[in-house]
Amino acid sequence: MSTTMAKKLYVGNLPYSTNDASLKEMFAEAGTVETATIIIDKMSGRSKGFGFVEMSTEEEAQNAISMFNGKEIEGRKIVVNEARPMEDRPRTGGGYNRGGSRGGFGGNRQSNNQDW
């Protein structure tokens, strides 16, 4: 028996211009694409540079990995591998909250209006 987890693929280091449709079109070369989703930053509305593709069979998923992992697209070598279940990843926040603040707005506005 084969597991169904291997059908979902993580696709990383994508050009920021990639959208759901172009991702699906690209992976269609490897087989039938069930879903293709680019992860979008909630604050900026722009691509985070990675996404997920779900192929219809494990064989097509393996084919997609061998076809696209390490392939250069718009000067970026993309990473394609089996997506891991979310609960397997530690929630350390490593790298996700780079700014250390929420959006960088606000700050200490009062000090801007003081007369020195």
Q: Which sequence of strands runs across the widest sheet?
A: 2-3-1-6
From the alpha carbons, calculate the radius of gyration and give it in angstroms.
19 Å
User: What is the CATH C-level name of the domain at 5-84?
Assistant: Alpha Beta
What is the helical fraction, as a range of percent?
10-25%
User: Which structural class do the helices and strands define?
Assistant: alpha+beta
> What's the CATH H-level homologous superfamily of the domain at 5-84?
RRM (RNA recognition motif) domain
Q: Approximately how much beta-strand content do the residues carry?
A: 25-35%
Task: Report the major sheet.
Answer: 4 strands, antiparallel
Element pattern in H and E: EHEEHEEE
CATH topology of the domain at 5-84: Alpha-Beta Plaits
**Total helical segments:** 2
- What is the strand tally? 6
Rounded mean pLDDT score: 83
3D shape: globular
Key words describing this protein structure:
116 residues, alpha+beta, Alpha-Beta Plaits, 4-stranded antiparallel beta sheet, two-stranded antiparallel sheet, 2 helices, 6 strands, 26% strand, globular, disordered N terminus
